[in-house]
Specification:
With 792 residues, the chain is an alpha+beta fold. The chain folds into five domains: 92 residues, no CATH class; 164 residues, Rossmann fold; 112 residues, Immunoglobulin-like, CATH 2.60.40.2550; 273 residues, 3-Layer(aba) Sandwich (Rossmann fold); 107 residues, Immunoglobulins (Immunoglobulin-like, Sandwich). It has 19 helices and 34 strands. The strands form seven sheets. Strands 17-16-15-18-19-24-23-22-20-21 form a ten-stranded mixed beta sheet. A six-stranded mixed beta sheet has the order 5-4-3-6-7-33. Strands 11-10-13-14 form a four-stranded antiparallel beta sheet, with no helix packed on it. The longest helix is centred in the N-terminal third of the chain and has 21 residues. The N terminus is likely disordered.
């Protein structure tokens, strides 16, 4: 028969007799003291003491018992979940002790709170970084985890202990979460409380970190690689900081800057511009440190920051792989080809192949004369094989320059798509549409629209002719309409001017500011030859115009997208005068512009095999290497074999790494795509060499790409303990934040908390020594009071 939450009567039938006995005894005491004297304070106090003793004895006659619940020993689980990631290696105070070392000291199995917790609960140690794992007590913390998957680890722990009695979880972490599942977790549905244990007096020393880094690059000379570095600091305001850009392979410092951080908490942006010396894939490293720590950094010693793991970032720069082949077709030898060829000779990434017509086809008049040859007399004297090597009368005489094999372009302009698609861009200079067959013109259209190649049309006597030009596929490819009336090429003084759209194109700029660009155009000579054309087509962009002596403005350089490719038209017929007028000592602007224009033509043109690197989850070091393969017609190829050799690019002080061989599997989500996954366990640059072969084993293409891996970088996005996240977890799961100095008190109070499996305890109150002691004290107090006052 309970009378309260923790008190029972063992002999409730004795209630009335106990009350009667207590009343009778109280009346006897009153009679003994005398009613007349009861008003005196001494007798009242003595009466109350004796009455209390009588009431306590009467209370014991009812056999009162105290009852309650407590955890059943070893029946409830109490996991200890410890963060073993790299962020726990940060120093927690000026003495150099890390967060991980502090936690290890707390988890000592001989600590009083551990002993008491193990007496009542089944303690299970777990650790987490990128995933949850059960670990023995004797295994020390490694603090090498590359991620802090806090939500995923807690969900995994919940799943692992499903349907098991869990009294709670002690969570030892700094709350630095790198898992993207945080927003998807419903903490209130966990079913057991989580008690994060954090240090209340953590005093993290000053620290400097690279918060973010970005790389922007292009294929043009006047746009070098730009690296933007964002620095963040704590307790380092107004201190000089050194930022270095190093080449990974040689550890050579390419560029160094000295900056001062104005304030803590606000990111400081640093811009580094440089031009890589070599084409292809290059790996670099950005390092930031306090100027006072320079010597320690050079000697690879420990510096005085909270951690040095967040002071460096790796980056990869891909300058492309060439050479990119461009076919130059000209209707007659001219100065333009000379200067374009001279300009691209210094660019190893561009290969210019020339096809120049030096004589038009001529009709043959056949006489009945055995001495008359059937070949063009320009080829007379070639020897015995004259008939095979010479051009016939009814064929134009073509000159091939820069070909790689003897039979390349031997029949003139390519007659098959496989031959034409081997180039990435085509330049047509002063050539009439009748030079090409209808099939060649349609193939040229496919080259731009489906192959994705670039087409540049240059002005000249035979270019942009009204009727012939507009009626051919060249008129469709052109970014400008044909002129409305057929005129001969006009001659006048034309001044070239850059438009606002042209100023926005990096490949068309040669100066860093708008004013300097305007000055450059003023220094250009005037031009005398301009092909009259119509207006630019819808969607086309005018990059430059010309103004004649009468103030009329006409298109000079226009570009547009066409299908997968792009086309451009330069209506000037004597742009070579700019190169001729350049004085010794002047900037080589014409040659540089031609090189940049050639780079623009071949930029983003599809190749037979292209590789891209897709990063995996934050901090896990996994990437997907995706290779897209195309056939001779540049359509997706699904029956190829893709082999990938992955190697970490070591610096000169490291041992050579062993390459890993991968076989890419076909990707069902994209035609012609092949995917292979790779896990980078080490920081630094990784180079992937891809070899694509056909079913018969012949090589289709080979290429390479790279990426900079830095697993665990997300571990250092913040210095402070994430109290806000830990407080949210504790409140929504029914737990609370525990100070690491209050673990003994917390464990002692666990017996009074609700747990899944508990047992009832009961004991008689009158068996307690304090009951008899209270009765004796009351009686002795009453007797002593009477003796003190001399009462009977």
């Amino acid at each position: 028969m309970p009378i309260s939450g923790n008190l029972l009567w063992g002999a409730p039938d004795w209630a009335l007799p106990a009350i009667a006995i207590a009343v009778v005894l109280a009346m006897i005491v009153v009679w003994n003291y005398g009613l007349g004297r009861a008003s005196r304070l001494v007798y009242v106090a003595a009466f109350l003491l004796k009455a209390a003793a009588i009431a306590l004895v009467a209370f014991c006659l009812l056999d009162p018992m105290r009852t309650g619940t407590r955890p059943r020993p070893q029946a409830n689980l109490f996991p200890l979940l410890v963060d073993d990631s790299q962020s726990m290696a940060m120093r927690s105070n000026a003495s150099g002790q890390t967060r991980g070392e502090r936690v290890e000291a707390l988890l000592d199995t001989k600590a009083s709170w551990r002993v008491r917790l193990a007496q009542n609960f089944d303690v299970r140690p777990y650790r987490f970084a990128s995933r949850l794992e059960a670990t023995p007590e004797s295994k020390p913390l490694t603090l090498e985890g590359e991620a802090s998957a806090l939500p995923s680890s807690l969900l995994a722990l919940k799943e692992r202990l499903r349907d098991r009695p869990v009294a709670g979880v002690l969570l030892f972490t700094d709350g630095n979460n790198t898992d993207d599942q945080l927003s998807q977790v419903d903490w209130s549905s966990f079913g057991f409380p989580i008690y994060p244990v954090i240090a209340s007096n953590e005093d993290v020393p000053g620290d400097l970190r690279i918060a973010a880094i970005s790389v922007s690059q292009s294929d043009f000379e006047t746009a070098p690689v730009t690296v933007k570095v964002s620095l963040a600091s704590q307790q380092m305001a107004l201190l000089p900081v050194i930022v270095q850009l190093q080449e990974e392979a040689t550890q050579k410092t390419i560029q160094e800057q000295r900056v001062t951080l104005e304030s803590d908490g606000n990111a400081k942006s640093i811009t580094i511009k440089f031009r890589p010396e070599k084409p292809g894939v290059g790996f670099y490293r950005v390092v930031a440190f306090r100027e006072s720590d320079r010597e320690a950094v050079e000697k690879e010693e420990v510096i005085s920051e909270a951690t040095f793991a967040n002071n460096s970032r790796w980056l990869v720069i891909d300058r492309g792989q060439g050479p990119h082949r461009i076919l130059y077709v000209s209707g007659r030898p001219n100065w333009e080809f000379k200067f374009i060829r001279r300009a691209v000779q210094s660019d190893p990434e561009v290969k210019l192949v020339g096809l120049l017509r030096i004589a038009n086809k001529e009709a043959k008049f056949s006489f009945r004369d055995r001495e008359v040859s059937g070949t063009n007399p320009l080829f007379a004297g070639l020897g015995d094989n004259e008939e095979d090597a010479a051009e016939q009368y009814d064929e134009p005489v073509m000159l091939r320059l820069g070909v790689e094999v003897n039979d390349e372009l031997s029949a003139g302009f390519p007659r098959t798509s496989e031959e034409l698609f081997g180039y990435e861009a085509v330049i047509l200079d002063d050539i009439e549409p009748e030079f090409f067959t209808q099939d060649q013109l349609l193939m040229l259209r496919q080259f731009v629209a489906f192959r994705g190649g670039g087409l540049l049309m240059l002005g000249g006597q035979e270019s942009f002719d009204a009727n012939r030009f507009a009626a051919s596929p060249l008129g469709e490819l052109s970014p400008v309409y044909a002129p409305r009336r057929s005129d001969e090429t006009a001659t006048d003084n034309y001044r070239l001017e850059m438009t606002r759209e042209g100023l926005l194109q990096p490949w068309f700029r040669l100066r860093e500011t708008e004013d300097s660009e305007a000055e450059r155009f003023k220094e250009m000579p005037s031009f005398n030859t301009l092909n009259p054309v119509g207006e630019a087509k819808p969607g086309a962009v005018k990059l430059a115009t010309v103004r004649d002596g009468q103030g009329r403005v006409m298109p000079a350089l226009v570009m547009q997208r066409f299908g997968k490719g792009k086309t451009a038209a330069l209506t000037l017929g004597d742009s070579w005068k700019w190169s001729m007028r350049r004085q010794p000592g002047d900037k080589d602007d014409p040659a540089r512009l031609w090189r940049q224009m050639m780079r623009w033509l071949v930029n983003d043109v599809p190749v037979r095999a292209s590789v891209r690197i897709e990063p995996g989850g934050a901090g896990d070091g996994q990437v997907s290497i995706v290779t897209e393969v195309r056939d001779e017609s540049y359509l997706p190829l699904d029956n190829a074999k893709v082999e990938i050799e992955v190697m970490r690019v070591s610096n000169q002080n490291d041992k050579e790494s062993t390459p890993s061989m991968l076989i890419a599997q076909s990707d069902d989500s994209l035609a012609g795509a092949y995917k292979a996954n790779y896990f980078a366990s080490e920081s630094g640059g990784h180079l992937a060499k891809v070899r694509v072969t056909s079913e018969d084993g012949s090589e289709i293409a080979s290429t390479q790409s790279g990426w900079a891996a830095q697993p665990g970088q997300a571990e250092f996005r913040q210095w402070e303990i994430n109290r806000e996240l830990l407080q949210t977890i504790a409140e929504q799961t029914g737990g609370e934040i525990i100070d690491d100095r209050s673990l003994d008190g917390f464990v002692a109070d666990l017996n009074n908390r609700k747990v899944p499996v508990s047992q009832v305890w009961t004991y008689p109150v009158w068996h307690r020594p304090w009951v008899m002691l209270m009765a004796i004290l009351c009686l002795c107090g009453e007797w002593g009071l009477r003796r003190w006052k001399g009462l009977s």
